[in-house]
Fold AI-2E family transporter.
Amino acid sequence: MNLGQWIGLIVIAISAYILWQIRDVLILVFAAIVLATVLNHLANFLQRWVKVRAIAVLLSLVGLIGSFTLLFWLIVPGFVREFQQLGDVLPKALNELQSRIEDLRHDPQLSTYIPDIESINQQLRNLLQRLPSQVLGFFSTSLGALLNVLLVIVLTLMLFFNPQPYRRAFLRLFPSFYRRRADAILAICEESLGKWIVGALIGMSVIAVLSWLGLGILGVKLALANGILAGLLNFIPNVGPTLSVVLPMTVAVLDAPWKALAVLILYIGIQQFESNLLTPTIMAQQVSLLPAVTLSAQILFTTAFGPLGLVLSIPLTVIAQIWFKEVLIKDVLDRWHLEPKTERELVIVKDRYSSPEFSETEEIESYPEPEEN
């Protein structure tokens, strides 16, 4: 390797190290890009009727804010009332549990296996003593999460209102001869993200409706709120469906213990339907992702970016797959050791991603397209 190659290798290594150190910021930027893409597709859909882009953008923002407000109104107040009721019932349940434990301790065969009430009370007191520090840590974490949410919202609005300067700035990072190709890859990424968003919304809607109907048949309170929550949490792979069953089981146990078990069976059945039939059918029409690749990507992105990496693991996988396929497979490996044409051609490299006053003449080789097997 000559001196220039060594310098290039060092620059790449330093760049990779810097990107790794700021990965938490990068994942927030990617979240803003996904949200901006959602708003852009919604605005394009509305523009078919209103014809004016500015009005479509305004309606998209109003619709998104209104949707979140409606979801908050449907979900939060009902759960607050139920947990207040749970707070009233819980002391009575604990007293009943304590009396049952005392009755069991009188049995000589079971007394050795029953924990001492005093030891349990001591553990509870120790837990209460540690509670203030845990609450303080929770609020500090919540404050950091709130700041991250505000940052994502600001970035989303910037990217949504005026995306072209950021797109041009990104394309300027590529060599001039590759910018048009990179722009085409970005267009493929945008289209695939849109398809994934549509598929995810369909899947979330189906899960919400099935959960609502099932909980309504079982007579569980807040069936609509729990159904909506199940649909929203279905956005988070693997972990979301597990979390979605906690609240309806908690609400159901206030009525009757058998309802909690019935809710668990209902949610297991819905998730089996979703993972084995619904998601493969929908995503086969939208994006092509192998199950093993998806699971591996979830582990990888969760390890690298934390919980937000898990939430965004599917769109991250979609984008990574596109760049891997288009750049590494098509533009590098498919052209490996192909003989270039004998003639060489001069082209003027000047496009909309270069500065208006900038143009340069490059001598490039024209490569034939690889033959299909």
In short: DSSP finds 13 helices and two strands in the chain.
